[in-house]
Amino acid sequence: MEILQDFLVPFLNFRLLFLVAAGTFAGIIIGAIPGLSVTMGVALLLSLTYSWELYDALALMLGVYFGGVFGGSRAAILINMPGSPSSVATTFDGYPMSQKGEAKLALTLTTIFSFIGGIIGVIVLAVAAPLVSQIAINFAQRDYLLLAMLGLLLVGSLSKGANAKGIFAAGAGIIVGLVGMDSIGGGSRFTFGSLQLMNGVNFVVAILGLFGMAEILYQMKNVASKGKVSILKKTAFPTIAFLLKFLPLSLRVSIMGVLIGALPGAGGEIAALLGYDHAKQTAKKPNRPFGEGAHEGVIAPEAANNSAIGGALIPLLTLGIPGDAVTAIFIGALFIHGLQPGPLLMEQSGDLFWMIVGSATLANIFLLIFGLLVVSIFIRIVTVPKQILLPVIAVITVIGSYALNNSVTDVYWMLGFGIVGFFMKVHKFPVAPLVLGIILGPLVDTSFRRAYMGSEGMGDFLIGFVNSPITLILTIVFFFTIFSQTNIFTKLKNKLKKV
Amino acid sequence: MKKNILIIIIIFVLAACGSETENADGQVDNEDVTSSYPEKNIDGIIMWGEGGATDIIGRTLAPIVEDEIGSSLVMQNKAGAAGAIATQYVYDQSADGYTLLFGAENPNLYQVLDISERSYQEDFVPVSIIANSFAGIIVKEDSPYENLEELVDAAKENPNELIFGTTGEGGLPSVVLAMLQNELKSEFRTVPYEGEGPVSTALLGGEVDVTSVTVSAAQEYVESGDFRMLAVVNDEPIDSLPDVPAITDAYPEIGKYLPWGPFQAVFAHKDTPTGVLEKLTEAFETAIETDEFKETLANLGMEYMNISGQEAIDFVDQNRSTSAWMLYEAGETEKSPEEFNIPKVEEE
To answer: Which of A183, A264, A329 sits opposite B201 (nearest CB)?
Structure first.
């Protein structure tokens, strides 16, 4: 009974209700603007809410968190620029849908399935937090290595047929990802003695450059030709039957999303990419091929990244360990308001846990409402003339890359990536594998080395891949994924079908 | 019309910038500078990211200091390269007391680890050492080692068997590990993680056998029974965990390196006019003394220090000597502390 009371606190208290709503709305806007990230928004709120009551501050921050992750998909679909790192995968099919005049359908679908993903994340948080956090802390370095390598296999999916170019781009990305101070050996890599390079390359900057600035430069090629403003098909609200078709997929990727989100070393961006890949592997009859506007291609990453939020909150609330960059800021907020995030938090302040679950539920409800209500406003972005839209976005990407760490170096990186991305687009190199390399390269590097350092020699290292349940499952999945792409597998499958 | 307004604004902004630089370069006589200080906003540069201990301390302190000094303190995070980016940034600004560095102990090792040329000793002057903390040596609750001697003996008997989790070269655990290895001749295998959070997670998951983090970071887990703290790296038990023995109980030879541990402090550029520095120190001293701020420290598990002047300089020096020579003797540094005239810790 007490639990229900705490859970309902944000529903019944008008001020909290308002703050969650305002946060979610602001989050959608912040997320939708490429360059203004969720992390930045929440960090800003942290300094703004120093003197607030704890519940008020948390309600607002949770709203921005959920709204922001969701909002990232708006820009991804409408202008091919992910508004936040976790919506990179949404551009793959979201933008093609938009180009085919289905922007409205894409926005509606992502809103509904972000809501479903988000709610599943919250449910898992509410009922299985201790269990999931056990899995998360037992996720060893080998498991991160396998997860990251599984992620790297995505290069195949993201190369759009140009495999050699895709692999090249991913390799370049891995090298870029390794720039800076090596967190294991302490040495400097590719820094040429420059202090600015020691900090490495933030992958958000790369995303801003490769998807934002590069897209602007690319579109500028045709900006003079008055160009046709994107068409907008009239679409009715999707029917229930149509939506139900995607429910099993969204449930699967949401569970994946929660688990990946709960891992301290992996977050929404990896969850969304793996969710996309899962959809691609399992969707029997997509309405169109993936990469050309498949409905599953926008649903899966969005359900996965929103469910990852609930996941990221799990280690935060059960162990005081942040699941991603945003929850790291939540830890700061709890400290400031006199709480000690740690394994005792749930015991000592159970009311706080349920209040957070309640606010998160509420944030998802508002996300659905606002998301559906403002579809018609967002959609007008598509009809804004390029001469006006592009300069505005250019300015925002510059501000966004500076604001990441108050550093001009990041702006230079962003511009550099913009130019590189432009030429990649011109010469038909896929840019997504480059981002994939930057995100996953360092993870492969550090997890491989830690796993090896922690074992006694090669034999012990290799045995480690089969002697724990989580690792064994991941090893099997990894090899199966590779095997499933070979000719032998296709032949086997055909034979089995005949039988 | 609108264009004209814009041009006028731009001219004004440029003019304002221009006059600022003149002031900075012109080094007007000291008394004038001191009496008029502060006549504009002061920038506080935090060397770690949002939500960390340095950030929390800086941001809680800022509004209280603002009231004292009568000017706004604008806080900004410039994380990266273990704080070296923020350190360099503050060093590059004019030495007028309008840019302050909120930092931890890390710059004490920049030179020997070849991260940056900057050091607290040569480039900065402490405004105030706000607080300090201690390192604790921790194992998981199901570990067979009940006290530090058992752990050290096990590491001597089976060298390179036990895994010691660190936070990378020059981090707090690496110095504690160097103490165990140099002074006590025990040998551990090391696996470095990204920070205290990840290394604690690794200990929870059983990936490493032992690690060392700040007492504040471990305290919650010790209270919940997940971790057992074998010793605190100090010469006496500390108030927050009175049951944990001091490392010197078992190994008095460590005593000469103490007190040693992480700290949080505010620094100004070395050439800041003395009068300005005094004003700053006074404001920070009063602010740190407030109950409001002391509560924040207690929440963070940090110990109140509030020292300044020569006392602060000596404290920072001692910390550098211990860390730099410890790591050097463990073969972990790029360069010898001798190159930078870092005095060795003397036998008592």
So the answer is: A264
In this prediction the pTM is 0.84
Strand partners, B136: B213, B232
Task: Give residues with Cβ within 8 angstroms of A12, minimum separation 6.
Answer: none
Contact A291, A92 (CB under 8 A): yes
Cα–Cα dist A325/A254, whole Å:
20
Alpha-carbon distance A447 to A139, whole Å?
11
How many beta carbons lie within 10 A of that of residue A498, not counting itself? 5
A199:B80 CB<8 A: yes
pLDDT in tens, chain B (348 residues): 445 554 554 554 444 444 444 444 444 456 677 888 888 899 999 988 777 788 888 888 888 999 888 888 888 888 777 888 889 899 999 888 899 999 998 899 888 888 888 899 999 999 999 998 889 999 999 999 999 999 999 999 988 889 999 887 778 888 899 888 888 888 999 898 877 888 888 999 888 999 998 888 888 889 889 999 999 998 888 888 889 999 999 888 888 888 888 999 999 999 999 899 999 999 999 999 999 889 888 888 888 989 988 999 999 998 898 888 888 888 878 888 888 888 887 654
Chain A's closest residue to B204, CA to CA, is A137
Provide the β-strand partners of residue A405: none
Q: How far is A408 from chain B (nearest CA, A)?
A: 11
Task: Among B49, B190, B220, select the one facing A343 at the smallest CB separation.
Answer: B220
Task: Tell me the CA end-to-end span of chain B in Å, nearest whole number.
Answer: 77
| Ordered domains of chain B (ranges, CATH) | 19-133+262-347 (3.40.190.150), 135-257 (3.40.190.10)
Q: How far is CA A492 from CA A281, A291, A487, A499, B205, in A?
A: 17, 27, 9, 11, 40
Query: Does the beta-carbon distance from B201 to A137 stay under 8 Å?
Result: yes
CB A367 within 8 A of CB A66: yes
Domain ranges of chain A: 2-454, 462-499
Q: Are B83 and B47 in contact (CB under 8 A)?
A: yes
Given B59, B204, B295, which is nearest A137 (Cβ)? B204
Tokens 């040596």 locate to: B137
What is the rounded (10 degree) CA torsion for B168, B173, B177, B182?
Answer: 90
pLDDT: is A384 or A169 the higher one? A169
The partner residues of B21 in beta bridges, in order of sequence, read none
Q: Is the ipTM of this complex over 0.85?
A: no
Q: d(Cα A401, Cα A419) in Å, to the nearest integer?
A: 15
A328·B51 Cβ contact <8 A = yes
Residue A213 · residue A397 · CB < 8 Å: yes
Closest chain A residue to the Cα of B166, Cα to Cα:
A184
* Cα–Cα distance measured from residue B285 to residue B283, given in angstroms and rounded to the nearest whole number: 5
Question: What's the pLDDT score for residue A229?
Answer: 53
Closest by alpha carbon to B99, among B67, B132, B123, B130?
Answer: B123
B277: its two tokens: 């520095």
Find all residues with CB under 8 Å of B191, minimum gap 6, and list them.
A450, A453, A454, B163, B164, B165, B166, B202, B207, B208
